[in-house]
């Protein structure tokens, strides 16, 4: 049955659906970057509130600034912006249709429609999921990249920006001039201090063209930090067929694990939904939660996906089943990452490693190694290198972390051990590939990528360990290197 408002009541009884009147919903949030994760996570929390009769004036308007965002708009518009969420629990699958989204801004050059939507006084939150590498920051210094061509364009053409951040600034200029007031900018990406980084990007870009506006934004807008957590695979042919087994024809279904967490700093200048009534946590100590999650879960994802790619393992659960890769994750996470992660209420770092082990091992989650390994230049620098730096400063063990860097370098060479090609999987793949090829005979060539490693390239202990591992991987193979690490 084609998913739509008209067919909701005709869905099979086993499928949960909205009990609220969607025609009575009013917009309160614009969400930029409306992919699978947003719909399985933030939109689900809002849906849960609406099921309780709450937050009916906080409905979501989707938005995007890239051409492929328009394809998503067309898919969702064809089904009245409804989404089927399929929970992949080892004990059984279940489906739920959610409906907190009520529109999608046209995707167009200059972003006039998006700017107009964000200028609407009804919009009180502008949220984003634009990937970790989408905030125009230097991966080493974390400073705003003022020289990026996109930022230069938006500063020179503030009335016709090409980025989400330029559009936010244009809308805030209108709101200031009209007396509408500010909105909250809410990053939902996997970045340590994601709200702080969003503030830096927006204010810094505004300052390039309008310093007075930059000061107004900095003084009046809020940008809460948050930690988001739910494993959400990409949607492909398997997922499109899976949703049909529930009797639903959905052009954009989402699969997800049976776990969610959302920890948010309570800093909203124009109000917010009561997400805590749907299970979110408001706290003044987001940093501890996000550090635990980013370093162990996201960092762990990088460790196992790169190894899996080189060894030809297709899925993350397959990596955990592999006789060496799963053990590699557990040892590095417990012995080299956890010592540099503080406990949070109800969870120690080692207990969290056990939790992530179980989640990664869920055979129902068909999460591809390729998806998880994507954009290592952002994810390694954000998820792994901060721990490596802390370990070096503390004199801690780094052998497994160094091996992880050697595995990343081996992956970026572009071939698997069976001789097949690893297709480009990073925005700067050609640069990484060249460094990886050079590192095959000169390991220092990889660490000398100062834009990624900064002064870590000068640390002799790291250079020595990394070089030994990379040479062993090339001479004896990935499994031999993993086995040696596990035996030490």
Automatic annotation (TrEMBL):
Residues 28-277 form the Mannitol dehydrogenase N-terminal domain. The keyword Nucleus does not apply. GO terms for molecular function: oxidoreductase activity, acting on the CH-OH group of donors, NAD or NADP as acceptor. It comes from the Bacteria. InterPro entries: 6-PGluconate_DH-like_C_sf (IPR008927), 6PGD_dom2 (IPR013328), Mannitol_DH (IPR000669), Mannitol_DH/Oxidoreductase (IPR050988), Mannitol_DH_C (IPR013118), Mannitol_DH_N (IPR013131), NAD(P)-bd_dom_sf (IPR036291). This is Mannitol 2-dehydrogenase. Residues 285-467 form the Mannitol dehydrogenase C-terminal domain. Keywords: Oxidoreductase.
